[in-house]
Amino acid sequence: MSKLSNVWVFSDIATRLPETIAGGRALGEKVSAFIIGSEADIATAYSYGATHVYYLGNKADAQMVEDYAATMSQAINDGDKPTLVLLPATKRCKALAAKLSVQLEAGLINDATEVSLDEGVTAKHMVYGGLAIGTERITSPVALVTLASGAFEPQAADTSLTGEGVSLAFVAPKQAIRCIERRVKQGNSVDLGKAKRVIAVGSGIGNLDNLALAGELATAIQAELGCSRPIAETEKWMERERYVGVSGVMLKPDIYLALGISGQIQHMVGALGSQTILAVNKDKNAPIFQYVDYGLVGDINKVLPALIQAMKG
């Protein structure tokens, strides 16, 4: 099978739509995008390569993304088979994919790092806490896959592109989840998966003063700041969205600098897609030095100020 006649795509987060459409273009002759939003959102989908847009209207504040499952299922069922539905592996899209899987009697693979067509839809994803890569195949007429960040490289937007549009009537779910209230999440929103340079800090950073210095270094080299799991979930010094690892963010930056990170595999699987990996750690036997392109054995308290001075100098 070279390509499917059509691949369906959807993203609840605007920044993840381009790479999801790129996956559709790689695997399908046509790319049909479900869009919830404005006319500008429709134009954006076309500009990244969607050939068809199925418009679901503007999203109401109290509407859950999963409530659109019945509407999407109906459109997918009316389309050509076999087919594939691609979504980013966000919390809301995983919940939506689970509902679609039941309604369409479709196989589902989550957090795929690679997707190909081989006697069905074949996807690779991490298993055993990142210690191995599992390969699974879906042979049902409809296949569902949620994509890890960086699984496909988006093309540059072309505003001259257009396509066919269809407005879909909303099909209300039989049992909807009612949204009572929405509150702005504390902390700055960040999408590490899009960053070209990332500085990540681990327990070896020592204290909040050094964390502030790491942020200063990140600003100096125009990098985003990430962290290991203990910094986000134990110390709670940084937002959960900045945690790099098997159950966190999967990265593919040009440069990844790890400061005070030991390098356990559960963390490193989130960073191994980096083009260049650098690390600073005071323990010369730290596992991270098995993965780096450049490593420095040294005290963070001395190395970090020197790096800042060098970058600013």
UniProtKB/TrEMBL annotation:
Keywords: Electron transport, FAD, Flavoprotein, Transport. FAD binds at residues 228-229, 260-267, 281, 299-300. Binds 1 FAD per dimer. Pfam families: ETF, ETF_alpha. Its cofactor is FAD. GO terms for molecular function: electron transfer activity; flavin adenine dinucleotide binding. GO terms for biological process: carnitine metabolic process; fatty acid beta-oxidation using acyl-CoA dehydrogenase. Residues 7-183 form the Electron transfer flavoprotein alpha/beta-subunit N-terminal domain. It comes from the Bacteria. Belongs to the ETF alpha-subunit/FixB family. This is Electron transfer flavoprotein, alpha subunit. It comes from Shewanella loihica (strain ATCC BAA-1088 / PV-4).
